[in-house]
Automatic annotation (TrEMBL), chain A:
Organism field: Halomonas korlensis
PANTHER family: GLYCINE BETAINE UPTAKE SYSTEM PERMEASE PROTEIN YEHW, GLYCINE BETAINE/L-PROLINE TRANSPORT SYSTEM PERMEASE PROTEIN PROW
A GO CC term attached to the entry: plasma membrane
Name assigned to this protein: Osmoprotectant transport system permease protein
Predominant cellular place of this UniProt entry's protein: membrane
Chain ranges passing through the membrane: 66-88, 109-139, 224-243
Keyword field: Membrane, Transmembrane, Transmembrane helix, Transport
Localization, UniProt: Cell membrane
Coiled coil (UniProt feature): none
Example GO biological process: glycine betaine transport
Protein family according to the UniProt entry: Belongs to the binding-protein-dependent transport system permease family.
Membrane-topology annotation of the record: Multi-pass membrane protein
UniProtKB/TrEMBL annotation, chain B:
Molecular function, one GO term: ATP hydrolysis activity
Catalytic activity: a quaternary ammonium(out) + ATP + H2O = a quaternary ammonium(in) + ADP + phosphate + H(+)
The protein, known as: Quaternary amine transport ATP-binding protein
One BP term from GO: glycine betaine transport
PROSITE patterns registered for this protein in UniProt: ABC_TRANSPORTER_1, ABC_TRANSPORTER_2
Origin superkingdom: Bacteria
Main localization category: membrane
GO cellular component, one term: plasma membrane
């Protein structure tokens, strides 16, 4: 870095993280201060006496929502990345076409259907939504991990083996680092989509930011729907722009 | 020393390498030449077991290679490929230090070895150590590839068309560097190329392959003098092969040492090739050249007669 770069570095970091920080700030403000906006919502929803959702406070709903998404995404990442690695090894090669096909097709399968299938097996509550999100979130991660691993120039792998790296060393030191940006992009898609999809959990009794939306639909209260949608939207934007920042930082090395 | 005894490689139905026997002495540079698809790379990669041979035996220093553990074997053999295969996410210095790190050398020893190699390959440390492969020119990247292959000081070096992707000027520069390196290091080298001129310039032993078999092997001059088949002859450039031979012999080997006459005004250096001398004769319309040494002092004379190898009239 040049001399001018050093004192400005802290400044620049704030500048670069401005977008994710802005979304986060808005999200937090709304979480604790939704009631302050009563005037606005009353103007939108003139028919109802109650315009601020209050069956649970937004901090709790946000926390539950995040927890479900985090658990599901973590599991999806673990399972998805492992599966993609397994089918690109010599022993698992036979399953590659099958897994690749499922991964590219699966995205067209609606999450509601996954949920509908999960409830009879797992009952109501948090578990079916975690399973649904896990399955649904698996696909972009598997697809991207496969793309990342298969996109590596074969001469790099030939050199790695030819120099005497073991298969494990090639995987850890060469394949995964080179595929990382594509894998992270898959995780980003998975998490962002799951933040929205998690709202469906409210229909199977997993209380989260989907609650105000469902309740709003059932009671014909537009203000509720808007509050849930705003929170989910801001959460998705916060997480997505954070991933984007991280991706840019990686690209710059 | 590398020995192949009746080695065959089949890929399914197809026979890529068909019963070849070959012996590469220690310190020798053996060039495998042939048209694309004739099995050169397959032969090379059987030596470091990137490909397992189907039949026959391959020995290194008298030991069958199957007796060694794969990774151990490969860490003892340098490997250079056309597309370099450098790791794009590692710096030049880290790339070069790969095998020493696999061999668990101490960090200090790796660092000093990397320094040594960068100097050897003409890559100033300050400029290149922290660069990434995508910041290098083709020639620089291939130098790093060679440095990486030499890092753990292996006795054997396998090179698969290492200069094939470079422009002609860079290619010749790297060929010269390899020759100088080899004169100092005396590695046992198997060098694959489809470029006969490159093979003639570099090889101690030349092996011509066609359709998975060895058609002829010998020194470059042996092949030029007596190509065994029309195929070898055409590989050597048909009628052009006289000129190729002229590129292999230096003026010093043919000149008449300091004689009484020395009146020729056109001059040529003692280490120039006969081909270059011929070019000077053409340019100067001269049939006689004065041969000079590094200090520009005349040391002999080269006549057209001598140049073409006819010494009867001298
Ligand atoms: N891994 C492989 N699987 C199947 N066939 C191969 C493989 N590698 C090489 N071959 C075949 O073996 C033959 C020789 O290939 P190769 O040794 O790469 O030729 P060269 O290096 O002389 O151009 C070619 O016909 C090629 O198609
Ligand atoms: Mg080849």
């Amino acid at each position: 870095m040049n001399e001018r770069g050093v004192p400005r570095r802290a400044n620049r970091a704030v500048h670069r993280w401005r977008l994710p920080l802005t979304w986060l700030a808005l999200l937090l403000v709304l979480t604790v201060g939704m009631a302050e906006l009563e005037g606005v919502f009353r103007w939108i929803e003139t028919d109802s006496r109650q315009v601020i959702y209050d069956r649970a406070d937004f901090v709790t709903l946000l926390g539950r929502h995040l927890l479900v998404v985090m658990v599901a995404s973590l599991l999806a990442t673990l399972v998805g990345v492992s599966a993609a690695i397994a089918v690109t090894r010599r022993a698992g090669r036979d399953f590659l076409p099958l897994v690749a096909q499922i991964a590219s097709m699966g995205q067209t399968f609606p999450p509601v259907a996954v949920l509908a299938l999960a409830v009879p097996v797992l009952g109501f509550g948090t578990l079916p939504i975690i399973v649904a999100l896990l399955l649904y979130g698996l696909l972009p991660i598997v697809r991207n991990t496969l793309a990342g691993l298969q996109g590596i120039d074969s001469s790099i792998l030939e050199a790695a083996r030819g120099m005497g790296m073991s298969r494990g060393q090639v995987l850890r030191q060469v394949e995964l680092p080179l595929a990382a940006p594509v894998i992270v992009a898959g995780i980003r898609t998975s998490v962002t989509v799951n933040i929205a999809t998690a709202a469906l959990g409210a229909t199977v009794g997993a209380s989260n930011l989907g609650d105000p939306i469902i309740s709003g639909i059932v009671n014909g209260n537009t203000a509720y729907i808007l509050q849930g949608a705003l929170m989910i939207g801001l959460l998705a934007l916060t997480v997505d722009s954070t991933f984007e920042r991280l991706a840019l930082r990686r690209a710059r090395r | 020393m590398i020995e192949l005894f009746d080695v065959t490689k089949r890929f399914g139905e197809e026979t890529a390498v068909d019963g070849i026997s070959l012996r590469v002495e220690s310190g020798e540079l053996c060039a495998l030449v042939g048209t694309s698809g004739c099995g050169k790379s397959t032969t090379l990669r059987m030596i470091n077991r990137l490909i397992e041979h189907s039949e026959g035996e391959i020995h290194i220093d008298g030991q069958p290679i199957r007796r060694f553990e794969e990774d151990t074997l490969r860490r003892r053999i340098g490997y250079v490929i056309q597309s370099t295969g450098l790791f794009p996410h590692w710096t030049v210095a880290r790339n070069i230090g790969l095998v020493p790190r696999l061999l668990k050398w101490s960090p200090e020893r790796i660092e000093s070895r990397v320094d040594e190699l960068m100097a050897l390959l003409g890559l100033p440390r300050e400029t290149f150590a922290d660069k990434y492969p995508d910041q290098l020119s083709g020639g620089q990247a291939q130098r790093v590839g060679v440095a990486r292959a030499l890092a753990a000081d292996p006795d054997i070096l396998l090179m698969d068309e290492p200069f094939g992707a470079l422009d002609p000027i860079t290619r010749e520069a790297l060929q010269d560097e390899l020759r100088e390196l080899q004169a100092r290091l005396h590695k046992t080298i198997v060098f694959v190329t489809h470029d006969m001129d490159e093979a003639l310039r570099l090889a101690d032993k030349l092996v011509v392959m066609d359709a998975g078999r060895i058609v002829q092997q010998g020194t470059p001059l042996e092949l030029l003098h007596e190509p065994a088949t029309p195929f070898v002859e055409s590989m050597l450039g048909g009628d052009d092969r006289g000129l190729k031979e002229a590129s292999l012999v230096t003026v010093g080997e043919r000149m008449l040492a300091l004689g009484p006459r020395l009146n020729a005004t056109a001059r040529v250096h003692r280490d120039a090739t006969l081909r270059q001398a011929l070019a000077v004769m053409f340019r100067e319309h001269a049939d006689r050249l004065t041969v000079i040494d590094d200090e520009d002092i005349p040391v002999g004379e080269l006549s057209l007669q001598r140049l073409v190898g006819n010494t009867r009239h001298e």
